[in-house]
Amino acid sequence: MQLPKPTESDKELFRSVIPDAPTITIKPMFGNLGAFVNGNMFAGLFGSTIGIRVLDEATRAELQEIDAIAPFGPSERPMREYVGLPAAWASEPELLASWVARAFWQVETLPEKKPKPRQQK
What are the residue ranges of helices labelled H in 24-92? Predict the structure, then answer.
């Protein structure tokens, strides 16, 4: 499976739409980026696509009415609970930021996810 790589401008846009909160961590993931709160990912960058985690059906229904919403992640295995935001929104960072913030607020309510212990060889 070939994973797309984001450009530096894709990474810059992603970082610019992430809310400014001390509980947020941005980490590299397979050459892309993920934004986490309490160990739970709420937004990701996959190539040039910004995706957000959607936990409730009302938000999912609202997003599905928007043209160009797509599954997020590899086409062979898109990530459940995540939605890829339209590429055209790259020219509207305020709109992207508002949806990323909504995902952050939802995921922030989840219990903290503890890292799995590494297995000894």
Answer: 57-64
